[in-house]
């Protein structure tokens, strides 16, 4: 009789209490206690009444993610090269670069030293430069570069006939060939097999992950070396002109002694200046190659780490 006398209002209050009891008894999601503690209210807690704000589950603060690499590949490669004896070593490499065939050792030296990076190695520059191993790896790298250069040269020559757009396309093909050649040379050095240098599909899969970083690692050191050579060429032309002035004067002076002196002095001076200029260019090129290959090795370690399973 007491329940019947409650009327409609009493029935509504009873229904709300039953719903609240059902909500409170519902189980919490899996992992709720581990995330917020056993004493925290469950997500099915009924809303507060009498003007009190309903409890809401706390939202975890986002954890800041630190960058995976504090330095770019190029900066990391240059950091590895900044060690005692770098310029002395590259000066010797530049001298070797002037000798045909023997200059294969330069590329082999850079690849043999840099192939350790994907495996976590960070050793100093090797003391020995001219070794059979360096020559072998350098020769393999020459073969790979020759094949890709021929393909890229033919493709660039075809599209180069188109004004402006074709020139831009030819330049892009040249950059792409340089990137493929560099990473495939490293892959070849890591496996010590010439065939690994022609796995174009694997290289393309890796390049798509970060082609801009690889482009900087491959191109920027060469551009810096090229700028140094351009500046040195102006100095070279100035001194070459000075040595040519006596030779030009000999054309109007019939004295044999003057002509002989002008030819010996001017010609010898011109040869010396030319030799110095060529050596400085080779030195800059050797340093740029060493930095570029080391930077590309850092790129392989970051974006082609699966290649380490090949070795």
Automatic annotation (TrEMBL):
<keyword id="KW-0472">Membrane</keyword>
<feature type="transmembrane region" description="Helical">
    <location>
        <begin position="164"/>
        <end position="186"/>
    </location>
</feature>
<feature type="transmembrane region" description="Helical">
    <location>
        <begin position="257"/>
        <end position="280"/>
    </location>
</feature>
<keyword id="KW-1133">Transmembrane helix</keyword>
<dbReference type="Pfam" id="PF13197">
    <property type="entry name" value="DUF4013"/>
</dbReference>
<feature type="transmembrane region" description="Helical">
    <location>
        <begin position="137"/>
        <end position="158"/>
    </location>
</feature>
<protein>
    <submittedName>
        <fullName>DUF4013 domain-containing protein</fullName>
    </submittedName>
</protein>
<feature type="region of interest" description="Disordered">
    <location>
        <begin position="1"/>
        <end position="59"/>
    </location>
</feature>
<feature type="compositionally biased region" description="Low complexity">
    <location>
        <begin position="9"/>
        <end position="26"/>
    </location>
</feature>
<dbReference type="InterPro" id="IPR025098">
    <property type="entry name" value="DUF4013"/>
</dbReference>
<feature type="transmembrane region" description="Helical">
    <location>
        <begin position="214"/>
        <end position="245"/>
    </location>
</feature>
<keyword id="KW-0812">Transmembrane</keyword>
């Amino acid at each position: 009789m007491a329940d019947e006398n409650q009327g409609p209002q009493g029935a509504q209050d009873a229904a709300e209490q039953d719903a609240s009891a059902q909500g409170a008894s519902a189980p919490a999601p899996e992992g709720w206690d581990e995330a917020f503690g056993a004493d925290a209210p469950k997500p099915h807690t009924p809303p507060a009444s009498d003007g009190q704000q309903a409890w809401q589950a706390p939202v975890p603060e986002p954890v800041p993610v630190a960058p995976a690499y504090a330095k770019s590949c190029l900066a990391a490669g240059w950091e590895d090269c900044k060690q005692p004896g770098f310029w002395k070593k590259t000066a010797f490499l530049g001298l070797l670069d002037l000798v045909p065939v023997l200059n294969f050792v330069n590329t082999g030296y850079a690849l043999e030293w840099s192939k350790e990076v994907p495996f976590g190695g960070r050793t100093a520059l090797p003391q020995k430069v001219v070794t059979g191993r360096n020559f072998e790896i350098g020769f393999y790298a020459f073969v790979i570069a020759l094949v890709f250069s021929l393909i890229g040269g033919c493709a660039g020559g075809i599209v180069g006939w188109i004004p402006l757009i074709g020139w831009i396309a030819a330049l892009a093909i040249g950059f792409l060939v340089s990137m493929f050649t560099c990473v495939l040379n490293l892959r070849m050095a890591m496996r010590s097999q010439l065939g690994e240098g022609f796995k174009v599909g694997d290289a393309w899969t890796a390049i798509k992950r970060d082609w801009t970083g690889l482009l900087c690692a491959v191109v920027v050191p060469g551009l810096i070396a090229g700028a140094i050579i351009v500046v040195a060429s102006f100095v070279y032309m100035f001194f070459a002109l000075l040595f040519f002035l006596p030779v030009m004067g000999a054309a109007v002076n019939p004295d044999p002694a003057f002509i002989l002196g002008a030819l010996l002095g001017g010609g010898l001076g011109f040869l010396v200046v030319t030799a110095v200029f060529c050596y400085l260019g080779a030195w800059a090129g050797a340093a740029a190659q060493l930095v570029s290959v080391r930077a590309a090795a850092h790129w392989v370690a970051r974006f082609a780490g699966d290649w380490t399973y090949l070795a």
